[in-house]
Design a protein that fits this description.
Structural class: alpha/beta
Strand order of the largest sheet: 5-4-3-6-7-10-9
Bound molecules: thymidine-5'-diphosphate
Amino acid sequence: MPLANAFLRPEELGQESFFDLAAAFCLDCGMVQLLEQPACEKMFHAEYPFFTGSSQFMKNHFEKQALKILAKYPPSSDPFIVEIGSNDGTFLSHFTRHGVRHAGFEPAGGPAEIARAQGVQTVPSFFDAGSASDLAGQDGRADVIFAANVMCHMPNLHSVFEGVSRLLKPAGVFIFEDPYLGDVLSGTAYDQIYDEHVFLFSVRAVMGLARRHGMEVSDLEPVPVHGGSMRFTVNFKGSKPVSPRVDEALAVETQRGLDKAETFHQFRRRVEESRDALKNLLEDLKKKGKRVMGYAATSKSTTVLNYCGITPGLLESICDTTPAKQGKLSPGAHIPVVPYEDFKKNNPDYALLFAWNHRQEIFAKEAEFSRGGGQWILFVPEVQILGAGQS
Ligand code: TYD
């Protein structure tokens, strides 16, 4: 597999780096993780092209979460809020606006620059035990540490937890949300497996992880983003009451076999079926002379394109709103990424929806495409075609 976000310029063909993408399940601790991961610096750098603010739905989602925190920690109480992986400042900008002390760790240069332009205090480093200690020494300890779609990216998870325990106040909370293993399995969402997602968390695995650092999961909340995520609230052991939701979620995981190897063997079989169904469908459409365009050059699409063997002959292009991806080729499969406006101009027969997790937002925006006879191809939870009236 290539790196999911290594979109390349045509003149860079032949210079890509590949690695073995393989996820494994640990029978002891219940963690699902990649066996091999490229160096973080290769993934999160000045040209990292993911910007949180590219989805209005996600902007609203983070605003809601920021307002919830502001209600519990009003500016008058002078809280200190830290975000790990603050990207373009979408979440922390709400604290800037209220004059609340905050800091965001963001090593990816492009997004960090946008955050700074909005007045978001940004530390240009990876978060770990060392950088967390430095911040605690400089600005004091945090009331809240927040991370969204970041914890599952961090191979040095133990150093990250060590950093959290050094930076968090004794009564502070560490809130993080990531794609939830249970949803990945139920939706056969194999595209959540790529270089940046080194872990797929279950409640059981996170509980074990927190325990090893003198902390515990005190609450959980399923959140309907990224195809199904879980928001974990973690704090020092005994510093907060533990919600009954935690044991309930654990019982559901056991009932669903999230602790059994056979569950993952079944997942693999469903993934193989999904791959064959998508490839067959695209080949069939090509034979019929239909034009198919990809919608949104997501990180997840790199797994789908390369795993299913989708070539430029089967998919003419992928439209995307991110300028940093436009004019480039998709990693590994080399499908041209074109500006979003080309979707309307090119008017394909079918749109293969790679950003299926933003389905509601996109279907609302593209009602005209469906009304005009355009059809959507989805592959999560199964390969299917949606015509007018279904999207
Ligand atoms: P997301 O699912 O968050 O991506 P990832 O798999 O990388 O986590 O989708 C973000 C990408 O989708 C980004 O490249 C912008 C693109 N996108 C569009 O092109 N149009 C849209 O309407 C939306 C919501 C996203």
